[in-house]
Amino acid sequence: MVIYVEDRGTTEADEQGEQTTAKDPDSTYMHVGPARFWFVFSTVLLGYFVACFDINLIASIHPVITSYFQASKQASWLTTAFMITNTGFQPLWGRLSDTIGRKSVYLIVLSIFALTNLWCGLANSIGSFIAARAVCGVGAGGLMSMGLVVTNDLVKVEYRGTFVSYINVAFEVGAACGAAFGGVISDSIGWRWTFGIQVPILVVCGIAGFFTIPNGLGPMLIRKAVNKQGQNASWMAVKNFDSLGLSCLVFAVAFFILFFNLGGNELPWNHPIIIVCIVLAVLLSGIVACVERRAKQPIMPLHLLITHPYANLTFANFLAGVASNTVLFNVPLWFQAVELSTPSASGQRLAAPAIGGSIAGVATGYVITVTRRLKVMLIIGSIVYLAGSIALYFIDRRMSEVAKIALITPTPLSQGFIYPGSMMAAFATSPQEEQGVITTTLSLWRNLGIVVGVSISSLVFQNVLNLRLDQLVHGPQAQYYIEVARNSVRAVTEIPQPYQGQVRDAYAQALKLSFVTAIVASALLLIIMVPMKLPRMQKGGGGNVAAE
């Protein structure tokens, strides 16, 4: 194995790190002492929690918001606008923080997120609200990515697994609280306050980050080497920033998401707009590849997509996103349409699996920290994904509640194994100067997996449902109740027998086949994980290890 060592010059962060290491060579932390680290890390966790809360809260309150503005037909844009910017701008923050430093970028994305939450709370039209959500996606995605990057820079490589697992817990808890309490807050004090209450928390995070995050974090500020022309390396980094690559990537991602979100939902797949979206997405992706190949500081280095083990880890995040969201998007639909549960009861059934996922995330961090073996948890996660997806195909409404929850649980468990595990492997096998952009690249592909998982499974579900409704629903008023079932899930509870039983059977068969998407994604995930070679992490500092 090869150790990558970088000559970075001296900065404030380095000086602090040297002092800390001199006092305690076995310290867990770099650049800061334990007390200061925990101030920084608490800020990161709180920011991560709020971002995940915000992302998931729209799921529970978007009917209230669109009803307030009398714009129910535009409901999908509340999520689509956010996802486009959240995903498309991910690579920007990693490379920008390499250029101007972690602290500056962290405070920038935190400010964007806080101001756009205020904008969401004050919006006076649906257009203004959608615009606010679009810009909010920029801040939320950046805040989550930079939280990981800052933590990575302050913790020695052999201990990072533990802290990444803590971040995973913040992710799970924030997501659960957003989905569970968004509606409660909206019903109690109004939907505007679901955004308003986030602002003072983010202000506190900003103040804490300003005073506690070291100024010198980030390879381009740390390294004060002078190039042949005598110019400062930081200035050259700014000059060589990959603006063209970023622009093309953002638009490629935007058209890709529009293709999957609008196709088959608001517009038929053969609609000219849908065709234009996928053509532009493919063309722009080709341009991105050409630009990134020549860029001095690529916004998304191509070797992350074509060389081992980075490509394995990148596409593992994509496939995990597909598998996870195929299940987590469609399982609530199973409980509401097949079991006739309320939305709140459906959400409560996901609570125990979510807790299991958080525990798995913490366990993954500790196992990697203690054993320093990176591949074991990734293989376990891939096997659990596949076994759980196959088992879920056999779910039946006549099963006990315990059995149904047991069938759902493998998916969040697998997330707890794969997401922190793949991030740790990426950190351990990459040079320090690339870790910011690697973090954001993995996040981008994970988000694309989320979009693709929901879209493909929905496409399968809708086509099979239409077919099964025509095959299974019989009687004098069959056509009327078929249309009712197609247009509203909640209306299934009001359909009389025997039509209701027939409709529920049709939904059950359609949802089971939609889970095949998760089976295929999980199988591909295992296929790319098994041959991957990863080193055992070496003890000592922030050194990064790569397999020969």
Which residue ranges are poorly predicted, with pLDDT under 50 across at least 5 consecutive positions?
Answer: 1-22, 224-229, 541-548
Give the distance, in angstroms, between the N- and C-terminal Cα atoms. 5 Å
Percent helix, as a range, is over 70%
SS-derived structural category? mainly alpha
Number of strands: 2
State mean pLDDT (0 to 100 scale).
81
Biggest sheet strand order reads 1-2
CATH class of the largest domain equals Mainly Alpha
Largest sheet: 2 strands, antiparallel
**Percent strand:** under 5%
What is the CATH topology assignment of the largest domain? Growth Hormone, Chain: A
User: Please, how many helices?
Assistant: 24
CATH architecture of the largest domain: Up-down Bundle
Protein model, in words:
This protein has about 550 residues and is mainly α. The chain has 3 domains: about 230 residues, MFS general substrate transporter like domains (Growth Hormone, Chain: A), CATH 1.20.1250.20; about 50 residues; about 250 residues, Growth Hormone, Chain: A (Up-down Bundle), CATH 1.20.1250.20. It has 24 helices and 2 strands. It has a two-stranded antiparallel ribbon with strand order 1-2. Helix 18 packs antiparallel against helix 24. It is globular and about 75 Å long. The N and C termini lie close together (about 5 Å). It is a multi-pass membrane protein. This is Major facilitator superfamily (MFS) profile domain-containing protein.
